[in-house]
Amino acid sequence: MEPLSAGPDGRGPGVPGPRQQPSEPSSPGHGSEKLCQVLVTEYEVLKAEQSARIAARDHLMYATLAVFGATAVAIAGSSRAAELVLLLPPVCIVLGWTYLANDEKVSAIGRYLRTTLGPRLAAAAGVDAGLVLAWESAHRGGPLRVSGKYLQLAVDLMMFALPAVLCVVFHFRLRGVSEPALTVVSAAELAAVAVLSIRIVLAMDAGDGREP
């Protein structure tokens, strides 16, 4: 028998009250599907960021070469080449640091996709982890990966560190013991180049493609 609700005046029996429908529990499969959609969206966003950073990183190589050429032409035609040559190391450091920041983010995104997002997506989809985002690990394999990474390290150091050091050496070759202020500037530039070089070496991901 349905319970009677109070009348309009609150004192007497009224009409039967509305029957409350029990809430249906959410389906586990529906929740897993929504989680998969969220993880796929996260993957697409991260891959877009990774692609943009790869493009920016690679363009910095061409920008660095263009800056080197323009600076060399300007210095060669000046009577103060010994002083102006010290302007190039800061350019190398700034471009090298920007290149390194993008390269580290590219590696960090790839590592997150392989070690975190891939397993989570596989668990949500109920499939083996090796079947999800397989390319993120597959492209890191191959017998030439390690040698290629060391070759890339050499290219990075020659592009951003070696020119800066050569500019400081060239300055002292032309001027000998220069003014104290220029000597301090040269020492600071060499220290900054050393820090950048160490960071480039430490950031090298020379693994064989197998995660620890």
Give a short overview:
The chain has 212 residues and is mainly α. Helices cover 70% and strands 3% of the residues.
Protein traits:
212 residues, mainly alpha, 7 helices
What is the tally of beta strands? 2
Succession of helices and strands: EEHHHHHHH
What amount of the residues lies in strands?
under 5%
User: Count of helices?
Assistant: 7
Helix content: 55-70%
What shape does the CA trace take?
elongated
Strand order of the largest sheet: 1-2
Distance between the termini: 66 Å
Mean pLDDT over the residues: 81
Main sheet makeup:
2 strands, antiparallel
Low-confidence stretches: 23-28, 208-212
Give the assembly state of these chains.
single chain
Sheet/helix structural class = mainly alpha
Backbone CA Rg: 31 Å
Task: Outline the structure in words.
By secondary structure, this protein is mainly alpha-helical. 70% of the residues lie in helices and 3% in strands. The chain contains 7 helices and 2 strands. A two-stranded antiparallel ribbon has the order 1-2. Strand 1 and strand 2 form a beta hairpin. Helix 5 packs antiparallel against helix 7. The longest helix has 49 residues, at 28-76. It is elongated and about 75 Å long. Residues 23-28 and 208-212 have low confidence and may be disordered.
